Amino acid sequence: xxxLVLACVVWxxxxxxxxxxxxxxxxxxxxVRIAVPVIFGLTILVMWEALVRGFxxxxxxxxxxxxxxxxxxxxxxxxxxxxxxxxxxxxxxGFVIGAAAAFVAAVLIDRSAFLTRGxxxxxxxxxxxxIVGIAPVLVNWFGFDWQSKAAVVVVMVFFxxxxxxxxxxxxxxxxxxxxxxxxxxxxxxxxxxLRLPAAMPFIFNGLKIATTLALIGxxxxxxxxxxxxxxxxxxxxxxxxxxxDLVWAEIAVAALAGTAFYGIVxxxxxxxxxxxxxxxx
Amino acid sequence: MxxxxxxxxxxxxxxxxxYLAVAPMNVRVALDQAERAGAEVMPEGSVxxxxxxxxxxxxxxxxxxxxxxxxxRPRLPTxxxxxxxxxxxTGEMIQKGRxxxxxxxxxxxxxxxxxxxxxxxxxxxxGIAGAVAIVYSRTADLSLMPWAIIxxxxxxxxxxxxxxxxxxxVGVESRGVPKAIISAYLCFFPVLVGMxxxxxxxxxxxxxLLRTYNASGLQSFLMLxxxxxxxxxxxxxxxxxxxxxxxTIVGELPTGAISGLGARILxxxxxGTPLAIWSALFAAAVLAGTLVSLLxxxxxxxxxRMGMQA
Lengths: 281, 310
What we know:
The complex is a heterodimer. In chain A, 80% of the residues lie in helices and 0% in strands. Chain A is mostly helical. Chain A has 2 domains: 56 residues; 208 residues, MetI-like (MetI-like fold), CATH 1.10.3720.10. In chain A, helix 5 packs across helix 7 and helix 6 crosses helix 7. By secondary structure, chain B is an all-alpha fold. Chain B has 2 domains: 73 residues, no CATH class; 201 residues, MetI-like (MetI-like fold). Helix content of chain B is 76%, strand content 0%. The longest helix of chain B is centred in the last third of the chain and has 36 residues. The two termini of chain B are 18 Å apart.
């Protein structure tokens, strides 16, 4: 009972603190902007812990965050091996290959207005499709190791990046292109100096969408067969053998990896597209 | 209409490449089959053939390459085979008078569609409610928005098996509920972001005008903010329904579901029937296309009625 009371008290305290911070005099400062979501997250965690203890929920159903944290620390070695297999080998390699392929394809397609008009609707359509379904086929083709995971990721990230890049390459206005022509700039000079920089916000938009897709693809593909390591493998076997705390630890790793991956891409975007209105202070 | 010809050309090129790819993908299986049938194949035995590249195999056994286009269990089926399988599991079922047979894709598509729509409904409601909270409460804005963004960087598939375990432990028997939760999770974010943008679309001067009319908060919400957000809402609904379908299929894939398009893919993988996988994939594509186009038409009609679009 006392745990339930604690949960209510913590919720009230956390939300109250956030209201005070949000209405306070410093509510536009960077510190408050970071502190408020952090307090919110911590409140949820403490409530989760208190509710699990208060209701005596079996750890087989939903382990408390503290139990997950213990498992996390205790099985760091396993988690690291899985992280390497799924994120570094599968997702990251697939992401790089897929992004490079999509980029090159977009620059080639862009040379023909006919192809651009034909490919954009198809690319938009394919980008909305549940492509993850292709995972079993690709695992069948490329075997159980990371190659098949990378292949799934390549297929999944290809179209969002392609569509965004092609759109971005058309972003430079006719006036700007005319200016380049008055400078007697050739195709490549116009591409490198004007159109690619102008396309960067779009390209990064595609890349950011692709970061999440890459992790989803790499993990789903492991459900269809993998060597005895990898996050998807550990999750599916963990659910089967009721080691749910390890599954939650893997989920935490997936969440951290996904957020870090996105954050890195967003950070590079900030560096590259510092001139864009959305990045200006 | 101007882009119809280019689109058809690109489609034709894609189908052409697909047909060309079938030969090298299937040549090994085709040669194995030909050898078993008693034909003479250049390097004898499938084990020695593994060391030879597919191109040499095709050159040396050109008379057997055609077999690869009519295999029962191809590594890569031809578009015609996939189309035939789709017709067998949908159109023919209707002709036979049992459109909802469990062997047909209409039944499985219906199961997937149900979960998708429930998830879409749930995700959209949560997204709109969240957007209203964020627009009207600065506390909610500061504490929810970062987590909404972070939630999308978490690969939901990692959570999918856990959601299924949790719902079954809590006592929910229906297989549709966990799938709907997963698709709601994927579809809520685009709706939330779109609606926040839409509800903030009215200019300060427009809000001021309503204040001079002495309009209450509810009135200015219903008469200004809500109508102003409709174009944004539809754009994000289209993204959301596609995401909801992805969520449902992801929810069906790793969980041993027995009905639904994702389950057809899973079962096709386990029983080694690639045609079932491919036809389910295309059925999912058709479903996604139909749902998005339906919303697109609704968007046009609604916006025209509201006088927002010529």
